[in-house]
Amino acid sequence: MDLLVGQLFTGLSTGSILLLAALGLSLTFGQMGVVNMAHGEFIMAGCYTAYVVQQVVGDAGASLLIALPVGFAVGGAMGLVLETVLIRRLYHRPLDTLLVTFGVGLILQQVARDVFGAPAVNVSVPEALRGGVDLLGVTVPKTRLFIMALAVLAVTAVSLVLRFTPAGRRIRAVVGNRDLAETAGISSRRVDAGPFFIGSGLAGVAGVALTLIGSTSPTTGQSYLVDAFLVVVAGGLGRIKGAVVAAVALGALQAVFETYSTASLAKVGVFIVIVVFLQLRPQGLFTLRTRSLA
Amino acid sequence: ACGSKAGEETAAVESCVDTSGDTVKVGSLNSLSGTMAISETTVRDSIALAVKEINAAGGVQGKTIEIVAEDGASEPTVFAEKAEKLIREDCVAAVFGGWTSASRKAMLPVFEDNDSLLYYPVQYEGLEASENIFYTGATTNQQIIPALDYLAETGVESIYLVGSDYVFPRTANAIINAYAEAHGIEVLGEDYVTLGSTEFSTIVTQVKSAGADAVFNTLNGDSNVAFFREYANVGLTAEEMPVMSVSIAEEEVGGIGVENIEGQLAAWNYYQTVDSPANGSFVEAFKAEYGADRVTSDPMEAAYTSVYLWAATVEKAGSFAVADVQEAADGVSFDAPEGTVVIDGDNHHVSKTARIGEINADGLLYTVWESEGPIEPDPFLEGYDWAADLAVTE
Amino acid sequence: MKFFTTRAGTWTGFGAAALVLFGLAPLLLSGFRLGLLAQFLCYAIVAVGIGLAWGRGGMLTLGQGVFFGMGAYLMAMHLKMADAEFRGGPGAVPDFMELAGIRELPAYWAPFASPAFTIAAILVLPTAFAVLLGLAVFKRRVKGAYFAILSQALAGAFAILLIGQQSLGGFNGLSRFRYFFGYNLDDPVNQQMLYFIVAGVLLAVVAVSLQLRRSRYGELLVAVRDAEERVRFLGYDAANVKVVAYAVAALFASVAGAVFVPIVGIISPASIGIVPSIMFILGVAIGGRASLVGPVVGALAVAWAQTALSEQFPSAWTYAQGLMFILVIALLPGGIASTAAVLKRIPTKRATVEATT
Amino acid sequence: MSIALSCKNIEVSFDGFKAVAGVDLDLSRGEVHFLIGPNGAGKTTLVDAITGLAAYTGSVVKDGEELRGRKVHHIARRGIGRTFQTATVFENLTVAQNLDIAAGAGRSPWTLLRRRRHLPQNVVDTMERIGLADRADTPAGVLAHGQKQWLEIGMLLVGDADVLLLDEPIAGMGHDERETTGRLLHDIAVDRAVAVVEHDMDFMRAFASRVTVLHAGAVLATGSVDEVSGDPRVQEVYLGTAKESADAATA
Amino acid sequence: MLRLRDLACGYGRTPVVHGIDLHIGPDEVVAVMGHNGAGKTTLLRAVAGLLPAMRGTVELDGTDMTRRPANRRVKAGMAYVPQGQQCFAHLTAGENLRLVADGRRHGKALIDAQLDLFPALRPLLGRQAGLLSGGQRQQLAIARALITEPRLLILDEPTEGIQPNVVAEIESTVVGLAKRGGLSVLLVEQHLGFALQAADRYYVLRSGRVASEGSTGVEAEGRVREAMSI
Ligand SMILES: Nc1ncnc2c1ncn2[C@@H]1O[C@H](COP(=O)(O)OP(=O)(O)OP(=O)(O)O)[C@@H](O)[C@H]1O
Ligand SMILES: Nc1ncnc2c1ncn2[C@@H]1O[C@H](COP(=O)(O)OP(=O)(O)OP(=O)(O)O)[C@@H](O)[C@H]1O
Ligand SMILES: NC(N)=O
Ligand SMILES: [Mg+2]
Ligand SMILES: [Mg+2]
């Protein structure tokens, strides 16, 4: 019983972390088709934002609450700059965005190294989030509960915006067909900036939250990137619902594999499961079909 | 036009080290980019400090030491490439650096084939001895075995092993398993995570439910942060289940957050708090050079020491030539910050004092136990019966 | 440019390349630099394959490190076996195994004592793996960014898998090779021979790629890249068309890995994971993915720039490297190979028919 | 006149919605068979089903062989070729290369791996026939809409398809081009079965040998041009004589 | 209303349309005809703002639009229905319409008006546009354009792929809107009959140049045929 509950919780928790890291990607990659390899560095920027805010504010609790919106703004601003300066030229060459943003990521890592030093820095966990609560016989760290709640909040907000607001419709329209959107009176320039801002901002938020459980160092973002991309792919491009299910499934899978083999082999196992899964659902869990041949 | 075949002698490579001028070049080869930069940049700094001090005191053999710095980029192949470049193009007299065993293994043939010298400053898994490498960090009998002895002495009867998935932790754990078997300690679990992994939910849950007396931690780098945070958050404490770490030094404590790790144990040969005149001046000089907020740690000290050991050996040999340095090395000693260290001419390791440290609220480690004097290096664990099955002499 | 597409032009091009590689380079470069060039040529061989799979076939293979690594490990296993045999007679275990406490040679190592088996394995195993994986993926029409991410994850998983294999050297990988098919590796003369071998392999690989591009298959591959579904309606199995290019790219990468090992002296998971795989791609993108020599030039340029920059600015070269990727790819969509074309049409905005990526 | 392709009781449904609801259709060699019907009647879907793009129940038989469940490229190899409502050609390849590829589905690997020395005769002839001989080396991407459609038809011809399913092949063509295309279709149909989906009634009247009208996924009428155009039901749902009938055009 | 002066445009460096002068008066319907590849679509894309002008100007009601991006031309009163039944495939048909109605004062009413015009669309509103049939998509595209309440409607072969009775419907709608006032139409059409019937004036393009222009009275058909068939 304990083991099962523990597993379940670990899966959910790992999943929510993955989801937080992947949610921004499901906008920038899933919706806009931009393979942003610097997304990990945006997460890292969120981590350092939390660090800086804590240095300034002092109190860990207050600084966490302040850092969340600030992290969103920092990540978002970085995304906006990236979009305006580089990505904008590359919408018709989606795979090239991968290479360019990889270069951006390298530079951001080095910037972090030069500004904050190569060793990791510490962001203290607020008193209120230290320790755990006992749920059905397992100890659940409060930090993880907090991250789960944050993930749920972020997902809900993003999907409501995309689904039901005019802005969301416009985003989906521009993503689908830029020229046509232009002729429908939508400024694709302005709309492009939107999801990129939100997606990158979410990376910043993820970064702030991840300081609660992980380290803050120039290479921090890297460890989340590949898994986050896998979540988006397995979930079906651009499908928030898919990303949620995929994140939790991958998290649970990882937890189960880890219990019965080693953590390293678990990664391999997860990869194999994804390849097999794509045999069944080549376009991911949830997909949008069209009749075009493209 | 084919060269020599297996079994035939290859003509010796000519060394291009130029000692006719009033400077001598040495290489400093560390990862300044990539995942290992987090640790290795600090080593670069202490090498530079030692060189600066030696130069200020008149250099070696009257010559000023000039550093040629290279980036190993956290990739073994780059280490090999840069080592060869330092030897063949820059004609350095010796190279200081390397961190991961993979980087050392990659450089080893380069130094052997070109007959040059590497000073390697990091604690490692032992089972190696090359004519062309001087190992100034701890080998296992100077770190891991004393740590196990300490745990056994404090009444630990069961341990849980957690490590990063690479050679050092795996070898270390093999040794720990053998030790445990011989000393009646129960190993309740052994888990490895990918280097850099930050997901410890499952492992910490397993550690907790296993209920060992102590955890032996061979995790490296960022993973430690996630591990200790998770550890603290599920309510595990140093009193209840202490963690003995062998890769957490002063630098790492800062990143983990002292509130998460206070009271936990580490095994090294050196802490910033070691009370000795030599260390007093080392710490002071380092802070003066790089800032008061910087800390000093074991690998930094070993790297710093290695430059002095090289200089002392050259002075003793009266020559920069590799053969002369190798010849003169045995018995060369230096009054290092950690205490006196002496080069063992047979295995090219140095004698070192083992210390168990406890992490205090100020983020520094304080010695709670130390060996009686320096321990002789025994990289192949020939002096331990229970380790007979572990290793073979080269 | 037109000239080089003629038969005479082709021979001239190859002649000139051979002259530079076999004549000029050994004459001008020191032993160390020649060794470095040999290493870069290995990357160039991988790049030629990527140029085919990605530039022509539209498959962004972010996981070439896997095939490169397979070739490299297969060769390294042979070299370690040869070494063990030389030191300890038949059946001796390689030195690193002794250190890891492995006393008994794992069964799967034994055949690698044979040079013939090793070479066959280098040619067949990665290619076969690519065919299987390709069929699994392409038959299900996984493509575009999906395929890219998937192949990237593959590289990551493969590296992790290797790290866990103590009988393959784990994280340290395999190193300390002394002999290459009976020749001492520390002899400069033999090192130069290795360089010539790599240079020869590169020319051969370029020739194969050229033939493939000019053949009907090459046209078909472009057709699949541009309108895969349409090709099916003409009666072709588009997946098979892609698998061929993917497998050829894998084969090239494997061969490159195999020659890389004796040159560099080590293969470890660090050389085959996600980042090295992206580096392979970057060379191709920077050189020009769609052209024949672009990938070669790009791979050499990136590797050379990397070395030169890091020698000059050991602690700040990442900036220069990052900038290089950004500028070249953002400003020169066709890579270095398109410089001339770009200069010519600076006044206008967009290419007429853009190569789809 | 022989039956080249025979469809029995074809049904295609999408999430419960029946786009094609039990269609029987025979295509004969020597005929240009027009498929007409309101927008959304299921014409394209029917073609999709026959060519293996949409899953269906029922049966499609060509030369005694059941095609249901076969892969797209197998069906194409059985001699069934189609064009798309929006022309899809290989934009980065030249007209000649497009045709050469279309001509070569059966080539051996060995042939494929060699360089094309000269164009196959049927490719040269076809280029002449579709009026693109002088654009042989033009990348197909820069052809005008109508030219792309001819190229698409040409690609079916060189591929030896003997059942051609053309989805709105003259969309966007001018009057003269329509004429040309119509004659081309008739020419082609001499020894092949040609099915044309079209909304241009003048074109249909001029060139149809036979007409089938689909409505709401089912066959509403079938017969000669006159029979069909005279059918009041067809007039009501499709041809229309006045405004009012538009309301009934909902699929 | 619309005035093009010496407008040239094309792809890459090669112009396809070489200096066209064209004007449309208020409430006027003007048809542009020409062979495949004559440059009709290219011209319309330049007017709509999807292709940069290489030379010349585009004016709407006396305001220079040449440098304005496409979306701002829509706000100025242009609506463009591109060739080829284009729609936002991943949005439902309803969302396709709401997308353009968003932010307009009587958005809902505008949508309703279009649905009255194209009743076939009503039952399809919840279906993904990418799954609609060709003709359904074309109707959706025209409806979408009309929701922007344009003063100038640009249609590229609007009847392509539409069933005959609906073609008649569209024709009368377009003409009706123009007649009612407030809407000018620039129409590219292959269907000679339809074009001449709907339009007040015509232009024939040949190789990117105006080969003939005039009003669509009697004898127009002959002149057009002649201009086109040379
Ligand atoms: N994949 C699908 N999922 C759901 N509905 C579909 C799908 N494909 C087609 N439909 C619906 O099936 C019906 C038939 O579509 P089809 O394209 O066959 O019509 P058509 O007769 O070709 O019309 P048109 O003349 O306008 O091209 C339409 O209502 C369409 O919306
Ligand atoms: N994207 C493009 N790149 C280069 N050339 C193009 C492109 N699109 C069209 N062209 C060329 O421009 C010319 C005019 O094409 P356009 O599409 O304007 O013709 P059209 O008059 O609309 O023909 P249709 O009646 O077939 O639609 C054609 O010769 C075509 O080859
Ligand atoms: N030698 C080590 N710690 O890798
Ligand atoms: Mg249709
Ligand atoms: Mg057109």
From TrEMBL, chain A:
The chain crosses the membrane at residues 6-27, 34-54, 60-82, 94-112, 145-162, 196-216, 228-253, 260-280. GO terms for biological process: amino acid transport. It is found in: Cell membrane. The keyword Transmembrane applies. Pfam families: BPD_transp_2. Its main location: membrane. One of its GO terms (cellular component) is plasma membrane. It comes from the Bacteria. One of its GO terms (molecular function) is transmembrane transporter activity. Keywords: Amino-acid transport, Cell membrane, Membrane, Transmembrane, Transmembrane helix, Transport. It is a multi-pass membrane protein. Belongs to the binding-protein-dependent transport system permease family. LivHM subfamily. PANTHER family: ABC TRANSPORTER PERMEASE PROTEIN (PTHR11795:SF447), BRANCHED-CHAIN AMINO ACID TRANSPORT SYSTEM PERMEASE PROTEIN LIVH (PTHR11795). This is Urea ABC transporter permease subunit UrtB.
TrEMBL record, chain C:
Its main location: membrane. Pfam families: BPD_transp_2. Keywords: Cell membrane, Membrane, Transmembrane, Transmembrane helix. The chain crosses the membrane at residues 12-30, 36-54, 61-79, 116-138, 145-164, 193-212, 233-253, 259-285, 292-310, 322-343. GO terms for cellular component: plasma membrane. Signal peptide: none annotated. It is found in: Cell membrane. One of its GO terms (molecular function) is branched-chain amino acid transmembrane transporter activity. It is a multi-pass membrane protein. This is Urea ABC transporter permease subunit UrtC.
Automatic annotation (TrEMBL), chain D:
SUPFAM superfamilies: P-loop containing nucleoside triphosphate hydrolases (SSF52540). Keywords: ATP-binding, Nucleotide-binding, Transport. One of its GO terms (cellular component) is plasma membrane. GO terms for molecular function: ATP binding; ATP hydrolysis activity. The keyword Transcription does not apply. Gene3D superfamilies: P-loop containing nucleotide triphosphate hydrolases. Transmembrane segments: none annotated. Residues 5-241 form the ABC transporter domain. NCBIfam families: urea_trans_UrtD (TIGR03411). This is Urea ABC transporter ATP-binding protein UrtD. It comes from Glycomyces paridis.
Automatic annotation (TrEMBL), chain E:
Residues 2-230 form the ABC transporter domain. Transmembrane segments: none annotated. GO terms for molecular function: ATP binding; ATP hydrolysis activity; branched-chain amino acid transmembrane transporter activity. Coiled coil: none annotated. The keyword Transferase does not apply. Keywords: Amino-acid transport, ATP-binding, Nucleotide-binding, Transport. Pfam families: ABC_tran. Belongs to the ABC transporter superfamily. This is Urea ABC transporter ATP-binding subunit UrtE.
